[in-house]
């Protein structure tokens, strides 16, 4: 790899989509935990 090569950084849209997917996954995981706790309490 040469110093003159551009950074192999994904385009902004892709990075935004990845960040959104990570947030969605985190929210889904939290929702599942809360649902399991609610099911366990009843």
UniProtKB/TrEMBL annotation:
<dbReference type="Pfam" id="PF26627">
    <property type="entry name" value="MmpB"/>
</dbReference>
<dbReference type="InterPro" id="IPR058070">
    <property type="entry name" value="MmpB-like"/>
</dbReference>
<keyword id="KW-0812">Transmembrane</keyword>
<keyword id="KW-1133">Transmembrane helix</keyword>
<keyword id="KW-0472">Membrane</keyword>
<protein>
    <submittedName>
        <fullName>Morphogenic membrane protein MmpB</fullName>
    </submittedName>
</protein>
<feature type="transmembrane region" description="Helical">
    <location>
        <begin position="20"/>
        <end position="41"/>
    </location>
</feature>
């Amino acid at each position: 790899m040469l110093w003159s090569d551009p950074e192999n950084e994904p385009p902004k849209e892709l990075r935004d989509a990845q960040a959104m997917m990570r947030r969605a996954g985190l929210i889904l995981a939290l929702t599942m935990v809360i649902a399991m706790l609610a099911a366990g309490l009843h």
